[in-house]
Amino acid sequence: MEILYFFAKTGFYATALVTLAAAILVVTLRNLFHCALALILSLLGVAVTYLYLKAEFLAIIQILLYIGAIMTLLIFAIMLTHRLTDRSVSQTNRQSLPAFALLAVFNIFFIASLAAVPWKINSASLAAKIDTQALGAFLMGPYVFPFEIISIVLIIALVGAVILGRTDQ
Amino acid sequence: MAETIDQIFVLAKDRFLDLLGIVLPDWIILLVRILISIAVLLAVAPVVMMYMTWLERKVLGRIQNRYGPNRVGIFGLLQPIADGIKMLTKEDIVPKNADQVIHFLAPVVIVIAPLLVLAVLPFGRNMIAADLNVGLLFFLGVSTFGVIALFMGSWASRNKYSLLGGMRAFAQMISYEIPMVLSVVPVILVTSSLSTAAIVEAQLGWKWFIFTPWGGFAALVFFLCGVAEVNRTPFDLPEAESEIVAGFHTEYSGMKFALFYMAEFISTFAISGLAVTLFLGGWDGPAFLPSWFWFGLKTFILILIMIWFRGTLPRFRVDQLMGFAWKVFLPFTLANIFIAALWALLPYPKNFIADTIGITVILTLLQIFNRKETPKKRKYLYAN
Amino acid sequence: MTPIPLNHFVIFSLFLFSIGLYGTLTRRNVIGILMGIELMLNAANINLIAFSRYISPNPETGQIFVIFVIVLAACAAAVGLAIVLAMYQNRKTVQAEDIHILKW
Lengths: 169, 384, 104
Known about the structure:
Chain B is mostly helical. In chain B, 69% of the residues lie in helices and 0% in strands.
């Protein structure tokens, strides 16, 4: 059995590598449609990472909402504006070198500080099993106020998108 | 004896694993246990698809007063194999301006989604490949990949008919996804579980959800949305032959074209299977026949209904299609959640009355708000 | 069986966030910028779940807030894309640097 856990752990690092590689493709490819497909792969990798954190419900929600809804919207927008996103137009501005330098410094600083922090691992939380029913109970119990606010925000976004998107003035 | 036949596949698998267990360590047995389910699904799905094409052609032929395939083998039973050989030996043409990589990836991705969702369907008692506790959401989530793959194909072909088909498929599948998910919510509400196996167990002993007032209508909405999701007639606008050549698979030939067809038929099977699981009691049925037989029979009947639709109904117009989803299905499924909650909350005779009243009210309201606006007859004062 | 160390999740999400930030800073296309933002939101989500799973006494908090973040991301995508389409209809451009006037 020990060897299966080893495989599972290797799977996590492989997923992380694929996710990061796909993310790099998202920010560097010239063809926006390819970027969107790479982003889908990256989001799938994040969903698998959720599985490693024992959040099955969120992994599926990630697929259903991010890939099923947000990405389809993005691809739709890419297609409706595709005459402007072909290869002849440069897709990056002239800030790439400063941005890269800044982020390198940022990453080194954070990794150094992460190595210095002794995290207190809470083993009870680590072993806890949170199923969908428990999440629903929490959403309707202690977190009912943010839940209601989120629904109002959703309605506002819905109305806003409809008003912005309509063509007949 | 009946028990043995009922569990024959499960027993065969256990016996096989016991035999392997003599020589192999237990971690390999665990992997093999998973791999067997996958292998069986991967082997059965193409066969099911092949004979669904045969069934469709045969039944459509009968509806249209002809015989259908009857040359290859008895009753044309070898026709799907002949078709398969033809598809395999055809030339694979890729358009010059096409996006080569994505043009190749699209048919591959589109087959993966319907094969994956088969894993959470309970084909019989104890016959589920993966009893996830979020199984139902898994089905709905993974089936959205079909949209992306379909769009990859249509975009990569660089063909205006492909793109039109892709646009139509996109709009249609997004619109019908919403009422489909909402029509499933009452089932989750009543069974308080997302696992497909648990949903079937909640319906054992003829307590099928289709017999409840909310369940009957939810099943109807779910089935029609399912037909729309797999792009079959009368919702086949994305591949409307008479309007846009073949829609998103215009530029595909040979085996890639066959993969698009395979995806469509396997998702038809999967959607019918899910409808059976959610509303028709899954593998539940009289005990004299095994559970997997009942599941197969119910799925077969739903598939026959889909073929019957195809032989009978003309294609929708785009505005009718959208109006159907947004003006009829969406408000009804929203109200249906409330009606199902009443059913779960009240004791027996009261909940039946409350549900009947609720459904009557919502159907009347839909009737009133969706009635056709016919302009008043003009009166011509000065002309006659 | 020892769990995967928390730092590995955090470093993974740090890299994902940096890549998203790089995309947001360097893209000219508004839709490309939106994709970078989605990457950053996902990195934040991984952190939320990882920290609540490893450290917090209530492991469900992170998951609840990830649901909220995903909903907000959906809102942002819907409104953002409506703005992109309005921009495309009125100005025939989706490049961020072309949209520098506040009214017209």
